[in-house]
Write a structure and sequence with these properties.
This is ABC transporter ATP-binding protein. It comes from Candidatus Ornithospirochaeta stercoravium. The chain is α+β, with helices and mostly antiparallel strands. About 25% of the residues lie in helices and about 35% in strands. β4 and β5 form a beta hairpin. α2 crosses α3, α2 runs parallel beside α4 and α4 runs parallel beside α5. The radius of gyration is 25 Å and the shape is globular. The two termini are about 45 Å apart.
Amino acid sequence: MEKKSVSVTLEHVTKRFKNVKGKADVIAVNDSDFVIEPGELVTLLGPSGCGKTTTLRMIAGFELPTEGRILIGDQDVTMLPPNKRDTATMFQSYGLFPHMTVFDNVAYGLKLRKVPKEEIKTRVEEMLELLGLKDMGDRAPSKLSGGQQQRVALARSLIVAPSVLLLDEPLSNLDALLREQMRVEIKKVQRALGITAVYVTHDRTEAMSLSDRVVVMKDGVIRQIGSPSEIYEAPESRFVAGFVGKAAFFNTEVKGHDGIHYQCALGNKMVDVTHAAKDVTTGEAVIMARPESLRILGKGEGKIDGRVKLNVYLGASIESFVDTPFGEVLVEIDDPYAKKIYKEGEEVSIDFAPDRVRLLPKDEY
């Protein structure tokens, strides 16, 4: 199959929906402006109603922007219908034709394009083999497992060799194990074909494991764009920090800084923090700490005193929930067999390395 790698560009795209009851218009997407590079897999991540699916539908052509432009490669597709754009969309529901075999489901798009029969046979067989469906072409979709049906739906989207593959929460109907397996399959196939892909989900694990970059959205606005590691380790707001992973937040006051070191008051102790969001200066702020960046020590030995409320055994790690003056704090203890585990009810203190936490604006959600 011919590989196509093109960019997708959104230039100040806004989508307003008219309110039929005479109230203010609903702004579903507000001034989205970013570029998806050729061959990149970018995930639109956010809670329900944040505008991620509307953004995907505008790229596909199912919705038209109120303002702005959308380009696929160098072509302005803003006002083109879906069938005039070189895209393929994989939806949450499989949408397979029950009266057709797996082979015919996958071949359907090629038949509509009047591709010669021999070429159809060759391309479908190659695609089925690529997705681990080599010996299933003669089966009915009803005879397949959920994961296999999802692979058929993916094969049907990819077989037409679109320039851009759009995936709208395609794994939400699968159980946890199948979701994990299909995440790997989608990433492998996307990388093998070098295709540009846009993936919509509210599942942070999917976003972090699949993506080259993540676009985090809230209330129609892009809150941050970055690689999974950048989004996780260097969030610019409390909303992004909390949405992409577990985190503890400690209110603090920044007494001073030199651009590298921030002197922070944490209760009756001073803490030196070395990483901060761009909007943090002096005054009130929040220290964000991931569970794996914290550790539990004996009473009085750390920065924040507390009492162990609950220990949850997870095999490779233990999650300890500690009551503190700042609220309940989750501490992740890896390799528990090699660490001291404090019992539930014990008085303890929590410590963290200054370079493992991050300062965020206090009122930024």
